[in-house]
Known about the structure:
By secondary structure, the protein is of the alpha/beta class. It has helices at residues 2-19, 39-49, 72-80, 92-99, 126-143, 148-164, and strands spanning 33-36, 54-57, 83-86, 106-108. A four-stranded parallel sheet has the order 2-1-3-4, with helices on both faces.
Amino acid sequence: MVLMKRLTLVLALALPLLAGCGGTGGAADGRPTVVTSFYPLQYVAQRVAGRHADVVNLTQPGKEPHDLEMTVRQTAELVDADVVVYERGFQAAVDEAVDQSSLQHVVDASGPARVTGADPHFWLDPTRLDAVATAVESELAQADPRHAADYRRNLAGLHHDLTAL
């Protein structure tokens, strides 16, 4: 009971802070921030963004992505991101955070990867992962048009590598 009261207090204090977040994004150095929900999406975002964006992954190495429970800090990172890359239906906490935010640049990998529900592990198929990379490049270029040509070039390199697989 005491734990529940403390958790309620923490959430009550954190929600006003989170409500003020969003839309500004960007790292302290001015680069856009891309938040990904698990490693294969982090890999794609890092390859496409190159040196022009900071990529933050919500699922820590060695942790089960299906069981992600977001911390207040992670929720703030997601809400404040310039681009969010996730797979709807894969991590309930991320779905809820995205639904409750007013993000402008979101890639739901389940669309381009043609996830049907029977097997959400699309990244095991390089052609489906490549379709997600194209969607990431498009959103990143919209969020940061100044580096759009570099994102296109980086996507071409990733496309080449995935095609070779």
